[in-house]
Amino acid sequence: MEAGRPSVDSYVLDLISTPLDRNWFYEKSDGEVCLMPEGRKALSQTWRLWRAAVSPLAEMVADMLIPGAPTPLTARRNREAKGRPGIAPLPATPALQRLCRICGGSIARNRQYCPSCAPIFQREQVTAAARATGWEAAHTPKAQALRGQAQKRHHAARAQWEGLPGWLTEEVYRFGMSL
Ligand SMILES: [Zn+2]
């Protein structure tokens, strides 16, 4: 089985990168965590993967010991006799129940969040993007104070404009004396 360890490790790393059903596990009072029947049943469905990972190697060893040994595990010689590729197609990975990363509810296989939690995730993404783009920095007390000073300057300029002679209106300034 050691020859199939890379396949197992790859599967386990992929498996633990997603939330797992808490009903799969039970923690004893001493801290030991047990895999419950539901989890064992789900993981036992992966046996075809490990069989496919180990079988070619077992038959290769058998062929070294008994040249021309039959290949009942992979049916390699049968396929080659029929002109088909000697390597069997890999079995499909069993589909495990996918869970929402926030609430743990069941979700479709191509999703990471349930419909209720997807807006929460999107809001967090927008907040993170605001931080990354500097929006948050633009709303610090110092930035707001600088903005307030600029607004005071604008108000002062506007007040100065309103103090000009009556004939010099904004329309005259914009469109000239012909008005
Ligand atoms: Zn959810």
Overall description:
It is a single chain. The protein has 179 residues and is mostly helical. It folds into 3 domains: 2-96, no CATH class; 98-138, no CATH class; 140-175. Helix content is 50%, strand content 6%. It is built from 7 helices and 4 strands; from the N terminus they run H-E-E-H-H-H-E-E-H-H-H. The protein has helices at residues 5-16, 37-44, 47-65, 76-81, 118-133, 141-162, 170-175, and strands at residues 25-27, 33-35, 98-99, 106-107. A two-stranded antiparallel ribbon has the order 1-2. It starts with a helix and ends with a helix. The mean pLDDT is 85. Zinc ion binds next to loops.
What characteristics describe this protein?
two-stranded antiparallel ribbon; mainly alpha; single chain; 7 helices; binds zinc ion; 179 residues; 3 domains
N-to-C SSE series?
Answer: HEEHHHEEHHH
From the helix content, strand content and strand pairing, which structural class follows?
Answer: mainly alpha
Query: What is the straight-line distance between the termini?
Result: 94 Å
* Main sheet attributes: strand count, strand direction, barrel closure: 2 strands, antiparallel
Strand content: 5-15%
Biggest sheet, spatial arrangement of strands? 1-2
Proportion of residues in helical segments? 40-55%
Q: Quickly count the domains.
A: 3
Stretches where pLDDT is under 50 for at least 5 consecutive residues are none
Bound molecules: zinc ion
Number of helices, where a helix is a run of at least 4 consecutive DSSP H or I residues:
7
Sum up the overall morphology in one term.
elongated
Task: Report the average pLDDT across residues.
Answer: 85
- Report the C-alpha radius of gyration, rounded: 35 Å
How many E-type strands? Answer: 4
